[in-house]
Amino acid sequence: MAVTSPFGVATDYSGSALRFGLVDVKPIEVVDTIKKFGIKFTRKTQAFESLRPSESFADFVTLENEAIIARILVPDWFEAERVIRIFSQRSIKRYEEDAELQKAIKELRSSKAIEGPLLRFTRFIINRFESKREEYVEIEAGRFLASNFPLSFYRRFIVFDNTYYDLLKVSEQIVRFSEFHARTARNFQMYSRQIETMKRTLSPLIDQMDICFFAASCLKKYISIWNAKTYEELERGPEFLDLKNIDGQEFERLCNDFEARLLEMRELLLKHDPRIIRKEPRLENEPTAKMFGKLVMSPSDSLNLER
Amino acid sequence: MQDSIPSGCFFIDTSVVLAEILRESTPRLEKFKKDVNFHKVPCYVTDSVRRECDSKIENTLNFLGNIIRESVAVSLETSRQKRKVPMESLMTPEDIVALEELFSSLYSVTKATLPLASPIRIVEEWAVSFLGERLEQGIEISVSQFLIELVKKLLSLTASIQDPYDELVTFEKSFAQRINIVVDSRIIDPLRSLGVHEPDATHIACAICHSMASRQKTVFVTLDYGSILSKKDDIKNALKQICCDPLYAIYYLTR
Fold first, then answer.
1. In chain B, which residues have their Cβ closer than 8 Å to the Cβ of A279?
2. Which of A145, A159, A280 sits opposite B151 (nearest CB)?
3. Which helix (H) or strand (E) holds B146?
4. Are B201 and A302 in contact (CB under 8 A)?
5. How far apart, in Å, are the Cα atoms of B235 and each of A73, B140, B183, B215, B227?
6. How far is B120 from chain A (nearest CA, A)?
7. How far, in Å, CA of B219 to CA of B136, rounded?
8. Rounded-to-integer distance, Cα B164 and Cα B169, Å
9. Cβ distance of A305 and B61 shorter than 8 Å
10. Where are the domains of chain B?
11. Distance (Å) from the C-alpha of residue A184 to the closest C-alpha of chain B?
């Protein structure tokens, strides 16, 4: 899972990390013979194997980028094929360099079920996200300062991050419950059935998060592409994002699509756990909340500097 | 005091929704919510109120963002250029003095009727206090870090209020429900002539239309003293519509 991206995509392919770790896995029964006090015993344990070949991440991101580029307008100074290649290679490189995630997935595949590998993997993703959350806000803040887009545009990406965090917490509950029941199953068939039930519960959530992430990627990549003049600039990410470089109608379409997908995601999460919207807002930074409260309550025309 | 069962419904104003999601006016709203739940009084949010909430949050955020990016950043840079201090250097009290000049000039371009309540003054207090506290604590901060910290605070705050907003308005999981009212424009005009501006006039007109269509006592609940509550007697006399503070709302339905 990427920590940063040239356009501050906070949770780059995070949905796919969950999918790789929790949905695209199959429980298998491992039978081995152990010798204790000179007597041979047969030990049966459960492990997980991947349902996808290991090279499929590259295929996955390439396909995703092809779909993104097919959905957005590309300026005539760029070739769509090369743009897809640049974006895909960047994601693959980041994934390959991400030793922490590779290790977690490897551990998950080799772990014995008794240790609760799925829950441990989910917690690994949660801990990692929590440790980077502040950094993600900082990336968006930095992007705002290096652009002429309104601040409200960047707010939706923080809401997206918060929603992704809610998904992680809901996933943790589902995995904890399912893995606990699976571990107490009498035989491997019952164990597998429990894991399948968990996957069926998680799949629609992860699918919807992927749809939402796709909409966010379309929006961010559209802005990046139209603000880059060369392939080199596109590769490292444009220095400044200028609202004037993009088509207003296309921008609005992509924004509306992202907003709609985000709302659908939040609604779906709410069905799983009503507590996700009952959190107290982060008003611990009191002075900012108080200041914002006073301004938002003041007459709208007082917030106009162009007089 | 003789008790009677309240009958009717409430239409809540933008000020009530915003106060609820920002946890402002808590004792008043807590009592109001308790009354609504206890007496099971229907409480509605109109589309016009929802639109105003969205635009107020967005406009306030953009107003603050623009001040930070277009004014604070530029003035600090200009002041440092004049003083021949590189931008990478850590911030000092001299930078705070540069902010004083900036806010004075910004203040002069805004229409401020009450100087102390001016939005510019509010932003000034927030930004300068934030920087002053860090300098007093001996925390080293560069200009770019300072700007990023201010923006981060705004992004975190406004993203975190999405949950209570969705709970109350989008998903209707709190004490209110959304309602779609077709407003009769003939009701808006007399409100305007009483000095009630848009979109407040539309919000109140929605309550009046609902009251006429449902023959139900409908109370418009607001925390807006300046534009609505100060004219509540005129509104009642001209249009028979009650507008009141959340603290007293339930008593208008039991009278």
1. 163
2. A145
3. helix B143-160
4. no
5. 53, 55, 17, 18, 11
6. 9
7. 50
8. 8
9. no
10. 9-55+163-254, 59-160
11. 37
Contacts of B152 in chain A (CB under 8 A): 134, 137-138, 141
Closest CA to B158 of B240, B245, B56: B56
Of the partner residues B63, B152, B226, the one whose CB lies closest to the CB of residue A303: B63
Contact B140, B153 (CB under 8 A): no
B141 at interface of A, judged by CB pairs closer than 8 A: no
What do you get for the CA distance between the two ends of chain B, in Å? 12
Residue B22: which of A159, A267, A289 has the nearest Cβ?
A289
Token representation of residue A43? 């030990």
Contacts of A288-292 spanning 24+ positions with Cβ under 8 A: A288/B126, A288/B153, A288/B154, A288/B157, A289/B22, A289/B23, A289/B157, A291/B122, A291/B123, A291/B125, A291/B126, A292/B22, A292/B60, A292/B64, A292/B154, A292/B157, A292/B158
- Which residues of B are less than 8 Å from A289 in CB distance? 22-23, 157
Indicate the range of A17-26, A202-211, A231-240, B173-182 predicted with least confidence: A17-26
Option in B119, B155, B171 nearest A140 (CB): B155
Calculate Rg over the CA atoms of chain A.
23
Q: Which of B185, B222, B186 is nearest to B17 (CA)?
A: B222
**Probe site for chain A from B144, B160, B222 (most A CB atoms < 10 A):** B160
B63 to A137: CB separation less than 8 angstroms, yes or no: no
ipTM above 0.85, yes or no: yes
Q: How far, in Å, CA of B80 to CA of B82, rounded?
A: 5
Sign for the CA dihedral angle at A197, A201, A204, A210 comes to negative
Contact B80, B74 (CB under 8 A): no
Residue A79 or A57, more confident:
A79
Average pLDDT over all residues of chain B: 90
For residues B122 and A294, is the Cβ–Cβ distance under 8 A? yes
pLDDT at B164: 92
Write out chain B residues lying below 8 Å of A155, CB-based: 61, 155, 158-159
What separation in angstroms does the CA of A256 have from each of A132, A205, A262, B161? Answer: 27, 21, 10, 20
Interval A60-70: pLDDT, tens:
888 889 999 99
Determine the Cα–Cα distance for residues B249 and B232; give it in Å rounded to an integer.
13
Could you check whether the bond before residue B199 is cis, i.e. omega within 30 degrees of 0? yes
Please tell me the distance from the alpha carbon of residue A112 to that of residue A177, in angstroms, as a whole number: 18
Q: How far apart are CA B192 and CA B200, in angstroms?
A: 9
CB atoms within 10 A of CB B181: 19
CA angle centred on B100, ends B98 and B106, rounded to 5°: 110
Q: pTM to 2 decimals?
A: 0.88
Q: What dotted CATH number matches B9-55+163-254?
A: 3.40.50
Cβ <8 Å between B147 and A294 = no
Which chain A positions have a beta carbon within 8 Å of B131's beta carbon?
none
